[in-house]
Write a structure and sequence with these properties.
Urate Oxidase; 8 helices; 34% strand
Length: 305
């Protein structure tokens, strides 16, 4: 018995070949944004799995071509998602993507992977107390003129206490002390301790949650080094935000803030010095989300390499 089902046509039309443009301008980027895919990384000696989004595209150098073959880029990404993502595998992926677009005369490709990197952060004082914190990560890879470039970007949250506000607060506290003890020729240590316990917060400096956005070039590295970059930034800033805390940890954090006064300029310069010592190519933006003002304070610094 013959099937009534018709055989599928094996010669499907390809509109990119059937409808050619005529002397149209070359395009710098043609591709896709917001592609969902699983991502496997080797960080801290462990395989870690993430849900990532990908933006990918190539240049369209053939002015007579109607378009590129986006499905080829998508399928290459699909295959890549089953492998461990490393700088080396990313480089090979981009080369394959360029080769898949020969009809478009493509000679460069850009791929951006974004995901949230999760790490356990120990408390400042309490032993065996940890909490989880996620960091937005962006890996931007490009291939052009047979050169591979890879950039790592992340945001680090920290607390910043204003030096000017701290000085003004200390001045008010001094004035309060002189007024309260104006009629006493001498005071005991206990008198002083009791006064501080009661009046020590008569005036307090303002501090705020702040964010450092950091981008470094890691083209020559064998690994991404996400955790080392985060730790370098947090140790440089001294007062990164905390996760799980008890009173002892909160007190330790208050002490760190009091001993780590900084303007937005201070934070930018500290990071530039520390990061520049390890990464010749970098870009840094720090933003203090002001608690005094309705606007933010911002500073940027970029390497001159």
């Amino acid at each position: 018995m013959r099937s009534s089902r018709a055989n599928p046509d094996t010669s499907l039309i390809d509109i990119t070949r059937a409808a050619l443009a005529t002397a149209e301008p070359a395009l710098d980027f043609v591709g896709m944004q917001g592609i969902d895919l699983p991502l496997s990384l080797l960080e801290d000696g462990q395989h870690q799995h993430y849900l990532a989004t990908a933006d990918v595209g190539v240049n369209l150098g053939n002015t007579n071509a109607k378009g590129i073959h986006m499905s080829r880029l998508y399928l290459l990404l699909n295959t890549f998602s089953t492998k461990v993502c490393t700088p080396q595998t990313l480089s090979l992926l981009l080369q394959s993507m360029v080769e898949s677009q020969q009809e478009a005369f493509a000679d460069k490709v850009e791929l951006t992977l974004q995901f949230r990197y999760l790490r356990a952060k120990p408390a400042l004082q309490t032993t065996d107390l940890t909490g989880w914190q996620s960091y937005p990560i962006r890996l931007k890879a490009s291939w052009h003129a047979a050169q591979f470039r890879l950039q790592l970007s992340t945001d680090v949250l920290y607390s910043s206490t204003c030096p000017c506000s701290a000085a003004l607060s200390r001045q008010l506290l001094q004035q309060k002390f002189l007024k309260d003890f104006a009629n006493k020729q001498s005071i005991t240590k206990n008198d002083m301790a009791d006064w501080l316990l009661e009046q020590g917060s008569y005036a307090t400096p303002h501090s705020q949650r702040s964010v450092a956005s950091i981008t470094v070039d890691i083209s020559e590295q064998d690994e991404f080094g996400i955790t080392p970059l985060i730790l370098l930034a947090e140790q440089t800033l001294v007062t990164p935000v905390q996760t799980a805390v008890k009173r002892a940890d909160e007190q330790a954090f208050a002490k760190l803030n009091g001993q780590n006064l900084m303007f937005v300029e201070d934070a930018a310069r500290r990071l530039a010095t520390a990061i520049g010592a390890q990464f010749p190519i970098y870009s840094i933006e720090v933003k203090h989300l002001e608690s005094l003002h309705p606007h933010d304070a911002v500073a940027r610094v970029t390497s001159t390499v």
